[in-house]
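Input set for joint prediction.
Command: fold jointly, output tokens.
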Amino acid sequence: MNEENRTKIPQKDSNSRKGWTRRSALKALGLTALTAGIVEPVSHLNSTEDGASLKDALGEMFQDHYKRMDKEEIQEVLLRLERTYAKTYQKEIKVSNDLPLQGVVFGYALNLSKCKGYRDCVKACVEENNQNRDSEIEYIRVLEMDKGSQNMETSDHYYDAEEVPQEGKYYMPVQCQQCEDPPCVNACPVKATWKEPDGIVVVDYNWCIGCRYCAASCPYWARKFNWNEPSIPKDEINPQTHYLSNRPRSKGVMEKCTFCLQRTRKGQMPACQEACPTGARIFGNLLDKDSEIRYVIENKTVFRLKEDLNTNPKFWYYTD
Amino acid sequence: MNLARFFLACARDVLKGGNQYRLWITLLLIIAIIGAGAYYTQFQEGLIVTGMSDQVSWGVYIANFTFLVGLAAAAVMLVIPAYIFHQKEAHAVVLLAEGVAVAACIMCILFVVVDLGRPDRFWHMIPGIGMFNWPKSLLAWDVIVLNGYLALNITIPLYILYTKYKGGTPNPRIYFPGVLISIFWAISIHTVTAFLYSSMPARPFWNTALLGPRFIASAFTAGPAFMVLAFRIIKAKTTYNINDPVIHYLALVAGIALQISLFMVGAELFTEFYAQTQHAASAQFLFFGIDGFNSLVPFIWFGISIEIVAMVIFMVHRWRNNFMLLNIACVFAIVGIWIEKGIGLVIPGFIPTPLGELFEYPVTLIETLVCLGIWAIGILIFTLLAKTAISIEQGQLKLKHNVSPRRI
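tokens >
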């Protein structure tokens, strides 16, 4: 997975005239809002001391859907976000828009025999993905399960990670399973969440209306909501971010695990994979016949969670 | 502009009224303002001020929404006898029923809006500038059917009232197609709302084909019961003549629908509890509690009990025809349905979570105040619509003769 492999997937339908009309409509809306003074209630997001931040506030308010914007428009948005984040966190934060790699579909496998429930993956994930520390959003839930059972309803979600592994228990981390047929994508009324060509289900945080229908429809409890304005300590913020992944979010929007696409689209491993002290996590390209993930799927006895729901997860569990 | 003059006349009419009327309006306004204040706090702080969580991600807002869609749909129980069978008594109150539908639809929309994390992005749902996930998202369907139903229930009565205001007779050829559409539309709004839930295999408690029929049956209980109470209050407080047969008819509808509704609840519970599968965990939580998580247990038993009491009153002719008992039955039916298919349906659907976690939903004061505020707005809207409709029907509000009536 190197830079040359990166495809240039057009981010916008070819009907540019339609786009132009919509854009002008949005601009007109923005102008109306400006004159009507309804921008004021939201302008505190960006603090409107000068004209530039007012323009940013309007840009934030009337930003188009990610998939409907062309290259320049996305560039404009990325720069605006970087300006806003710099102001909020007093730190330079890079917002990239690395596109999916050609010939790559990501998959994950987890060795239940190796996982000991240390929860290092959870911690690494929170730090990598700039989750809200205040409301303690975590994309990975590690379940302490009774040996001899796969009943999650008798599992412990709040076990002490200092005292593991416990006798008679095994540990099962659950995160977004990046379903091939994701119910959350169907549920969203405004197409704010979709499956990227590399198989990752992403959220456009600037398009989500926060109805939480996706969260209700997810069989893996993978979607997490920003119930308040997220707070991340300035010295803990990860400045390397991606528009569709770990950039800072606002209150009232949904977020989820993206298999760290800000890293994996650059050929790196997800933070949870790197953090795992026992080597329980295997991540890779499902389309690459020689990959470790393919070896695991083909040679181990693997299973997927709630396979009966036909969501086709790209997350496999196995044991030695 | 005659239409503008019409609206102005209506506005002037709703400002007039006796002391009791003024007191009533003031009371509703005060509750609405308190609710708005509570919502302002929520808008500033985020939905964290509610009892909702990632575990239980919908609460009383969506519970109220679900209940009110049923109330809106129930107008059809008067629309059919009035417009299809030309029943005189039903005709006299059908505009009031449509007023209930309008108020209920607006409350539904408000309950969805206050539940949104980013209400400022409502325009993402507007066709053209927004993006609509139709036909895949059931929520997109719900937005369409609710707004369509609201539009139907505004335009038909508006045409009829405006024509009467001008001293003419409404032409059935103009409004009848709309009436026909609204009958099917009424059933569709509540079916779509049921499908919103039953389409999610992630939540076994909702994932049942019986949900749609249950929603319709419970709607035709709570709706007519609500109208009985509203009509009896109107009859007591105004000179508008609402005949007893229409009250008896509505009570009968509520009674029959409640029997069907409770039968389906029973069928549902049999399936849940006989085999005792893991999929019955939500029902177990709701009715008996699991491991000390039992916040809804008293509510659901109370709700089901008063539903049964209401059903018995509705079933015995002598009791149903006794207005005092009928009032009790109607209140019990409304509250019982609100519990059973409102909080008793929405909240346990989330408990346990898909990962088997038990988690309680503690409703907060702010949430409660917002709910009360929206109900106050809804009842206020109904009061104003009913007053206008009655004034026009009684001929107190009409175009003055020296202005020549003109078609719009």
